[in-house]
Amino acid sequence: MSLSPRACVLALLAVSCMNTTLARADVHYEEKIELFEVGARDGTPEQIWQGIRRWGPTGGDMHSRSVIVGQAGGKVSWKWSYAQGGGGCRVQRSDVFVAVVIRLPDWRYRAFASNEQKAYWDCIESTVTEHENRHAEIWRETGSEIDRAVSRLSASSCGELNAAINATGNRIHAEGQARQRTFDAEDGKRGRYERCEALVAPKTAADRRPPPAAIEATPKSETLAAARADAATRSRSGGLPMWLLGAGVVVLSVLSLAGLIVAFRESSTAVGDDAPRSPPVAPSERPRSGRPKPPGSA
Prior knowledge:
Elements: H1 5-21, E1 24-37, H2 45-55, E2 71-85, E3 88-106, H3 115-151, E4 154-155, H4 158-189, H5 194-197, H6 212-216, H7 220-236, H8 242-273
Parallel strand pairs: 1-3
Antiparallel strand pairs: 2-3, 3-4
Helix pairs in contact: 3-4
C-alpha cells in the first residue's frame, strides 16, 4: 500500500507534534533501611517491648502510651525543564525524587533464645516490616502520580506553568500524606501485634517480673520511685526504716562505752583505798614553823 505525498507530509507532522507535546519523565526512588537494637538479653516479651520503647522511634519516652515499633519516613521533591513554542510553554522534562528511610527493630540475641521466644520475635519483626513496606509503597505511588501529572501540564506562559507544577505537586503530596495516616489508622484497628501474644504461653505474675537486665535499663527516676514504694511497703508491713536501725546501733554503742568508763573509775578507787596509810600526827608533835629556840628558853 502506497501513500500519497500529502499523506506522508501529514504523517510526518503528526509524529513531529507528538514529539513536541510529550515530556520525558523519570521517577528516582531511593530506599535506606536502618536497624536499632532492642538489647533484650533474656528475650521475654516485657524486655523486647521495653527495648523497642527505649531505642526505637518512640525516642526513649518510657511513659508514652503508644509505642512506635517501626518508621518509614519519606521525602518527595521534583524538578523540571520547559520549552516555549507555538504560543505557549510546556514541560520538556520532569524528574521526581522519592527518598524513604525505614527504621526497623533488630534482636542480636535471637540465636540464643528458646523456640517460643524466636517465634514471638519473628512475628513482631515480620509484622512491622510488612507495615513499613506498605508506607514505602505509598511514597513510591505518590512520586509516580506527581510525575504523571506534571508531565502533562502546559500553559500560555512559563510563569503560569511554573506555578501550576508546584501547585499540582504539593496537592498530590498532601494527598499521599493523608493516605499514610489513613493506612495507619486502619491497620491499627486490626490489632496486628495481638496475634504475636498468642505464641507466648500464659505466665503468672511472678514470672512476668522484670529480670535484672531489664531493671538495669530502667531510668533512674523509675528506679528511685520503685525503691521508695518498696520502702513504704516494708514500713507498713512491720519492718523498721534503715535510719532508725542505724540510730539504735549508735545509741547502744554510746551506752556500752559509758559503762566501760564508769567501771574503770570504780576499779581505780578500790585500789587506792586498800593502800597502807601513815598514822596521824598529834597536833603537839607537829613541827612549828619559824626559827628553832635555844635549849632552856621558855
